[in-house]
């Protein structure tokens, strides 16, 4: 009996030891799993915290069930070891509860830290979003202020029902039928509608030009990588003294800044005498002498077919307004030419190398009707006495004349005529006729270096180069445009040719490569021979479009510097005549633009911020 009892005791102890080992293994596995779950805390900490609690509760329930089972088995097998097993199970369960509480506390701390970090990240993200919103709102406000008028007009246009063949007048709030062109003022035509739209745009641009007392740097354009528009002239002068900026670049930057800050500086009415020939209708052409002391002008007389050629004398006057560098007095001087029976087609200066002081002028005429001959005249318009009045006339035959150009290196001039080009020697009166490929020569220019090349722009869109040293009259080079050539200009180096055509294209040709290297946008032209000019410093080019706006472009970059609206209502029949100089009245620094419209001259000058 004792042996059987001992065996039963040994078996019970071995069974209890195995149960304890199993419990330890399960506890270790649960601890390892809990520790692993506690380390991998992320944004979903609350869910993991609930899982930890549920796992702890399940483990405690399992332990309780296992302890109950072990207690029942121990009670059935042996009563003396039951108390020990219950004590061990109670201690294990208490330890497990303590560990689960500690783990839950760690989970709570990690969750709080994660919440704090997420709140900080959210706050920083909100700040970034708020700043971006502020920037976007500012940009939107600027765009809305700039596009407010356009949006209002578009909204009004959307509200107005567009009926084909009818025009809606916003002021009168009613529709008018669009009729063919008529002399009746009250009839609504396409011409009157376009004129009203152009006039409203002109008034708006003019008010913007006069209201802004100073232009921002954003309106200035960058014309060189070493001279950004944000730099003022003082900085450029300092950089020039240090050797960072060349003298030519400093001069170009100064003149371009003057143009971009150009403002109205006054008005001068020229002909005020109560004379029938002083009833001026419009100024057709303007050109200045090389020292800018004289202005050569061509006007049309109202209610007649008479044209008037007159010299204007410029003198410097004391400056009253320090904001405008242009300060001149303009008065008529010299002889007056009244041409009535022939129309003047071209007008230019014709200086003689032998008589530098005399102001000779070349102009060509064409008969209005009939079969009279076309003529070319060279006349001294500023004689000091009656003995110095000299007139040279040349018979050009039955040719329709379009343009003329003077050769400053020889006593020669050329005339662009119908399907030909004429070269005339002033002293010998010899005449040469050049081949223009059976097309009218509408624009001409001599090479400024030596005067041995002549360039003709034809109606077919060809730019023909003739070598005056050659015995052949055929062109030696040809460059083409899609439409008729309107005007030609050359730089003093003789390698760059500026060309404009009837489509409004203004471009720079390289004579050596015979290709276009640069284009200048926004010159409005449809079918007119509109001239453009280059300033004396060769910093920019300027010209008037068919919309009567004077445009300025940077010569090197091709970017538009300024678009100047006309100061009074203008039309295709009254396109302004303009000329710019940086030394009016032969005074360096006395710079500005003179614009001739009708019987008045409008002065514009630019101010440079130091």
Short summary:
The chain has 610 residues and is an alpha+beta fold. The chain has 7 helices and 30 strands.
Task: Give me the secondary-structure topology.
Layout: H1 2-39, H2 45-77, H3 82-146, H4 148-159, E1 166-169, E2 174-177, H5 190-211, H6 233-242, H7 247-260, E3 262-269, E4 280-288, E5 294-301, E6 307-316, E7 328-339, E8 342-349, E9 360-367, E10 374-380, E11 391-397, E12 401-407, E13 412-417, E14 420-425, E15 431-434, E16 441-446, E17 453-458, E18 462-467, E19 477-480, E20 485-490, E21 496-501, E22 506-510, E23 515-520, E24 532-534, E25 540-544, E26 550-554, E27 560-564, E28 577-581, E29 592-597, E30 600-606
Antiparallel strand pairs: 1-2, 3-30, 4-5, 5-6, 6-7, 8-9, 9-10, 10-11, 12-13, 13-14, 14-15, 16-17, 17-18, 18-19, 20-21, 21-22, 22-23, 24-25, 25-26, 26-27, 28-29, 29-30
Give a verbal description of the structure:
The protein is α+β, with helices and mostly antiparallel strands and 610 residues long. Among the domains are: 2-136; 148-204, no CATH class. It is 32% helix and 31% strand. The chain contains seven helices and 30 strands. The strands form eight sheets. Strands 3-30-29-28 form a four-stranded antiparallel beta sheet. A four-stranded antiparallel beta sheet has the order 4-5-6-7, with no helix packed on it. A four-stranded antiparallel beta sheet has the order 8-9-10-11, with no helix packed on it. β17 and β18 (462-467) form a beta hairpin. The longest helix has 65 residues, at 82-146. Residues 1-13, 34-44, 51-62, 71-85 and 213-230 have low confidence and may be disordered.
């Amino acid at each position: 009996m004792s042996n059987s009892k001992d065996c039963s005791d040994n078996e019970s102890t071995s069974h209890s030891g195995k149960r304890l080992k199993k419990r330890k293994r399960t506890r270790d596995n649960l601890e390892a799993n809990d520790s692993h779950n506690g380390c991998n805390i992320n944004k979903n900490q609350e869910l993991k915290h609930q899982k930890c609690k549920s796992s702890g509760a399940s483990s405690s329930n399992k332990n309780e069930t296992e302890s109950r089972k072990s207690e029942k088995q121990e009670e059935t097998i042996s009563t003396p070891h039951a108390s020990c097993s219950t004590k061990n199970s109670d201690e294990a369960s208490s330890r497990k509860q303590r560990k689960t509480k500690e783990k839950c506390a760690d989970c709570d701390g990690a969750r709080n830290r994660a919440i704090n970090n997420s709140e900080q990240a959210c706050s920083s993200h909100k700040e970034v979003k708020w700043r971006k919103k502020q920037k976007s709102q500012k940009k939107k406000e600027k765009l809305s202020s700039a596009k407010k008028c356009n949006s209002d007009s578009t909204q009004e246009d959307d509200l107005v029902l567009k009926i084909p063949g009818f025009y809606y007048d916003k002021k009168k709030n009613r529709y008018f039928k669009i009729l063919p062109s008529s002399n009746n003022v009250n009839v609504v035509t396409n011409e009157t509608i376009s004129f009203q739209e152009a006039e409203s745009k002109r008034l708006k641009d003019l008010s913007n030009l006069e209201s802004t007392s100073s232009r921002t740097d954003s309106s200035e354009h960058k014309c060189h990588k070493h001279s950004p528009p944000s730099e003022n002239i003082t900085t450029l002068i300092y950089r020039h003294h240090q050797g960072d900026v060349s003298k030519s670049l400093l001069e170009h930057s100064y003149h371009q800044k003057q143009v971009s800050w150009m403002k109205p500086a006054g008005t001068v009415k020229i002909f005020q005498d109560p004379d029938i020939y002083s009833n001026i209708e419009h100024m057709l052409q303007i050109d200045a002498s090389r020292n800018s002391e004289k202005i050569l002008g061509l006007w049309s007389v109202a209610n007649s077919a008479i044209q008037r050629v007159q010299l204007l004398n410029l003198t410097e006057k004391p400056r009253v307004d320090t904001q405008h560098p242009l300060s001149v007095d303009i008065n008529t001087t010299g002889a007056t030419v009244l041409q009535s029976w022939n129309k003047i087609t071209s007008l230019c200066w014709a200086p003689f190398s032998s008589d530098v002081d005399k102001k000779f002028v070349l102009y060509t005429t064409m008969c209005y009707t009939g079969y009279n001959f076309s003529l070319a005249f060279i006349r001294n318009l500023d004689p000091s006495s009656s003995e110095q009045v000299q007139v040279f006339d040349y018979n050009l035959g039955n040719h329709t004349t379009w343009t003329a150009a003077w050769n400053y290196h020889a006593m020669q001039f050329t005339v662009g005529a119908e399907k030909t080009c004429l070269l005339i020697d002033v002293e010998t009166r010899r005449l040469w006729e050049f081949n223009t490929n059976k097309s009218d020569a509408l624009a001409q220019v001599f090479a400024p270096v030596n005067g041995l090349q002549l360039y003709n722009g034809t109606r077919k869109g060809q730019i023909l180069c003739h070598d005056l040293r050659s015995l052949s009259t055929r062109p030696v080079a040809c460059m083409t445009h899609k439409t008729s050539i309107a005007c030609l200009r050359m730089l003093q180096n003789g390698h760059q040719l500026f060309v404009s055509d009837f489509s409004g294209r203004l471009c720079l040709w390289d004579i050596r490569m015979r290709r276009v290297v640069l284009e200048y946008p926004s010159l409005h032209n449809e079918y007119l021979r509109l001239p453009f000019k280059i300033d004396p410093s060769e910093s920019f080019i300027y010209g008037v479009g068919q919309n009567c706006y004077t445009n300025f472009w940077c010569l090197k970059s091709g970017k538009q510097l300024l678009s100047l609206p006309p100061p009074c209502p203008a039309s295709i029949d009254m396109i302004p005549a303009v000329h710019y100089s940086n030394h009016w009245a032969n005074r360096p620094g006395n710079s500005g633009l003179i614009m001739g419209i009708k019987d008045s001259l409008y002065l514009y000058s630019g101010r440079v911020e130091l």
